[in-house]
Specification:
The chain is mainly alpha-helical. Helix content is about 55%, strand content about 0%. It contains 6 helices and no strands.
Length: about 80
């Protein structure tokens, strides 16, 4: 059985970009404040994965759930509802 990749880095990058835009946060601010490389989003858009801790930092910075960034939920505030 062929293993299926459940998460697509370009989709995650686009979701981060879209959500950051709704919060009026630039990608450059995310990269700087999370101490990520300047080409992080470019690499993601080209199919490279991001480290789980970097994704968690971005989620914390945007005050949304990692599940939202991964596309597992459409509720960015899911993390606030879990005790």
């Amino acid at each position: 059985m062929k293993e299926q990749n459940l998460y697509n880095s370009p989709d995650v990058a686009r979701r981060i970009k879209s959500y950051a835009k709704t919060k009026k946060i630039s990608l450059q601010s995310i990269l700087n404040d999370c101490n990520l490389g300047k080409n992080t989003f470019s690499h993601m858009l080209h199919g490279n994965s991001i480290a789980f801790d970097s994704l968690a930092q971005i989620a914390d910075y945007l005050d949304c759930s990692v599940d939202y960034l991964l596309g597992r939920t459409d509720d960015p505030d899911l993390h606030k509802k879990i005790n």
